[in-house]
Write a structure and sequence with these properties.
Elements: H1 2-17, E1 25-35, E2 52-64, E3 68-81, E4 85-98, E5 104-119, E6 123-126, E7 132-135, E8 140-154, E9 161-172, E10 182-194, H2 195-202
Antiparallel strand pairs: 1-2, 1-10, 2-3, 3-4, 4-5, 5-8, 6-7, 8-9, 9-10
Length: 203
């Protein structure tokens, strides 16, 4: 947890220094995580497994043009993979968003960060006497890498947007020497809220 607190402090320091790049939005999404090969495992998100999660994020644009923007996001998430792990994710993505019109947005992003892996179930092994002995599994720091594709659509005049995002996530080292790299296909469904909405309500 100290590492997570340290990373949060780093993010806060980044925003305080980058005054010209203030957060523009706040998002919240419900997720489903499925262990499968990247890309070709995407269909399993809709019929195979249900490993829920939630992600909140914020971000800003580095450059903005009429039909596109270069942006960076900062995300905090939680996932529950039954019998395997509970994980806290803290990561950043940099991406490109294309704007065919005022309502529709298409995005691609790549990123990475920290994943705090908490074992999700008890494990046992036989001791020298032939009895089963409970193994105490410790939480472990992991690295996660991300590649995502998304579509968003403006649903209110105030700028609230609904979105769906497909993400390939790699977790490493999951089990060193046995399963060093664990791939996830992740579905994000959520909404994005402009920061100025909250500012206007506070006045």
């Amino acid at each position: 947890m100290r590492k997570i607190a340290f990373l949060l402090c780093c993010f806060s320091a980044f925003f305080s220094e980058a005054r010209d790049y203030k957060p523009k939005y706040f998002t919240v999404a419900i997720n489903n995580y499925v262990t499968a090969k990247p890309i070709i495992g995407m269909p399993k998100l809709f019929y195979s497994q249900w490993h829920p999660g939630i992600t909140v994020s914020t971000g800003f644009d580095w450059k903005t043009k009429e039909k596109s923007s270069l942006n960076q996001s900062f995300k905090l998430g939680y996932m529950h993979h039954r019998y395997v792990q509970n994980s806290i994710l803290l990561y950043t993505e940099i991406g490109k968003r294309f704007k065919p019109n005022d309502k529709l947005g298409l995005s691609i992003a790549i990123g990475g960060g920290y994943l705090h892996m908490i074992p999700g179930d008890e494990q046992f092994r036989k001791n020298n006497n032939g009895d089963w002995q409970k193994i105490k599994l410790k939480a472990r720091p992991q690295v996660m890498l991300s590649l995502s594709l998304g579509v968003d659509y403006k649903i209110t005049t105030s700028g609230i947007r609904a979105f769906i995002r497909y993400q390939n996530m790699l977790q490493t080292p999951f089990v060193p020497g046995y399963v060093p790299l664990l791939p996830y296909n992740v579905l994000h469904v959520g909404a994005s809220f402009p920061i100025n909405i909250f500012k206007n309500q506070s006045k």
